[in-house]
UniProtKB/TrEMBL annotation:
<keyword id="KW-0460">Magnesium</keyword>
<dbReference type="Pfam" id="PF09202">
    <property type="entry name" value="Rio2_N"/>
</dbReference>
<keyword id="KW-0808">Transferase</keyword>
<feature type="domain" description="RIO kinase">
    <location>
        <begin position="65"/>
        <end position="337"/>
    </location>
</feature>
<dbReference type="InterPro" id="IPR015285">
    <property type="entry name" value="RIO2_wHTH_N"/>
</dbReference>
<feature type="region of interest" description="Disordered">
    <location>
        <begin position="240"/>
        <end position="261"/>
    </location>
</feature>
<dbReference type="Pfam" id="PF01163">
    <property type="entry name" value="RIO1"/>
</dbReference>
<feature type="compositionally biased region" description="Acidic residues">
    <location>
        <begin position="244"/>
        <end position="254"/>
    </location>
</feature>
<keyword id="KW-0547">Nucleotide-binding</keyword>
<dbReference type="InterPro" id="IPR036390">
    <property type="entry name" value="WH_DNA-bd_sf"/>
</dbReference>
<dbReference type="InterPro" id="IPR000687">
    <property type="entry name" value="RIO_kinase"/>
</dbReference>
<dbReference type="GO" id="GO:0004674">
    <property type="term" value="F:protein serine/threonine kinase activity"/>
</dbReference>
<keyword id="KW-0723">Serine/threonine-protein kinase</keyword>
<dbReference type="GO" id="GO:0005634">
    <property type="term" value="C:nucleus"/>
</dbReference>
<dbReference type="InterPro" id="IPR030484">
    <property type="entry name" value="Rio2"/>
</dbReference>
<keyword id="KW-0067">ATP-binding</keyword>
<dbReference type="GO" id="GO:0030490">
    <property type="term" value="P:maturation of SSU-rRNA"/>
</dbReference>
Length: 371
């Protein structure tokens, strides 16, 4: 979906008031009646019609006639617009740039603030999911609230932001969370490629260990990523150009040595070039993204999700880098010592994401649509 940043600045105050009223009305109505829009916005009927015409032309709302009445629906474009406007008002973003990714349930844009600092805006798009099956958890929904695309997408963004914040605060390698509104999250732009796009690495064994350590550290904090795969791991390459060249030159020699002696040989970084930071973060530093499907290690199927995350990495390393290891973490032994770095339930709840909301979203995520 195209986001037109210029539209952000050019919309009349009346149109905006009416758009905000449509959003408000959408919380209880799939199709918002015109009378309700007039009531919420406080505009005269003529004013409402004119504004709706303008908004419909910009595709921010859709006019629909159902069996009973003519009403208005907020479109994804309208919801995007409202979120962007909130970010602009808070001075979080100033402009919207290129789209850099389209997931099954999200669109990723590069955005920038007034100083030109680039960030990522992730827009949740849970619209293509049928929510009928989450009816059983309706208790958690507020009175009159339907499990609409708007609600579910907003929930996913709130969850992602809450988890990213807690993880970031505890020093996990994740993008810095910056802001959240509606179905959108603004976060640090990681200047790196997904693992998926990396054909060769000089030292698969050390990256493999780093990733397994990350899975273990998450579990010790009561968390399972749930989608720990080569698309959701970005690899920051801390080698200098000179070091990369040297690695490339040495590649053949290394391959011969591995064939001869087996094992794994590290990235060529001279001992004197190993700074504390490099030692700590690794020369190839993984950064984890994509959190809406994270689950607690207390989840009934926690072991299944944990094993699936581990297996994902094993399979990828074996296929891509021909790297296989019999060393990998087991859920039972990771959980046995019972040391928790922090308590997920307490911290995430404190950040504003309730247990009820988590349950609704978990149920949707694990229906199989999200993967
Ligand atoms: P989805 O839920 O649709 O899988 P992701 O959060 O995984 O969305 O993002 C999709 C893609 O967008 C990623 O694989 C990555 O290439 C890119 N991306 C997402 N977040 C960032 C970021 N903070 N910095 C750089 N690239 C990102
Ligand atoms: Mg992803």
């Amino acid at each position: 979906m195209k986001l037109d940043a210029t539209d952000l600045r050019y919309i009349s105050a009346d149109s905006f008031r009416v758009l905000a009223a449509v959003e408000q009305g959408s919380k209880n109505h799939e199709l918002v009646p015109l009378s309700l829009i007039a009531q919420i916005s406080g505009a005269r009927a003529g004013g409402v019609n004119k504004a709706l015409g303008d908004l419909a032309k910009k595709k921010l709302v859709g006019k629909v006639q159902n069996a009973k009445y003519e009403g208005v629906r907020l479109t994804y474009g309208g919801y995007d617009f409202l979120a962007c406007r909130t970010f602009a008002k808070r001075d979080t973003i100033y402009s919207v740039g290129n789209q850099i990714g389209t997931g099954k349930e999200s669109d990723i844009y590069v955005v920038a603030d007034q100083d030109g600092t680039q960030m990522v805006m992730k827009i949740q798009r849970l619209g293509r999911i049928s929510f009928r099956s989450i009816k059983s958890k309706r208790d958690y929904l507020r009175k009159g609230q339907s499990a609409s695309w708007m609600y579910m997408s907003r929930l996913a963004a709130i969850k992602e932001y809450a988890f990213m914040k807690v993880l970031h605060e505890h020093g996990f390698p994740v993008p810095t969370p910056i802001d959240q509104s509606r179905h959108c999250v603004i976060m640090e732009l990681i200047d790196a490629f997904p693992l998926r796009q990396i054909a060769h690495i000089p030292s698969p064994g050390s990256l493999y260990s780093q990733l397994m350590d990350l899975i273990v550290r998450l579990a010790r904090s009561g968390l399972i990523h749930g989608d720990f795969n080569e698309f959701n791991i970005l690899i920051r390459d801390h080698r200098s150009e000179e070091e990369k060249d040297r690695d490339e030159e040495n590649e053949e020699e290394r391959e011969e040595r591995i064939a001869r002696e087996g094992g794994d040989f590290p990235v060529v970084v001279r001992e004197e070039d190993m700074t504390e930071e490099r030692k700590e973060k690794g020369v190839l530093e993984p950064v984890l993204i994509d959190f809406p499907q994270m689950v607690s290690t207390d989840h009934a199927d926690a072991e299944y999700y944990f094993n699936r995350d581990v297996q994902c990495i094993r399979t990828f390393f074996s296929r891509r880098f021909k790297y296989e290891s019999s060393i990998y973490p087991r859920f039972s032994s990771v959980m046995k010592d019972g040391v928790r770095e922090f308590d997920l339930d307490v911290e995430v709840a404190a950040s504003g994401f309730s247990k009820g909301e988590r349950v609704i979203l978990e149920e949707v995520s694990f229906l199989g649509f999200v993967f």
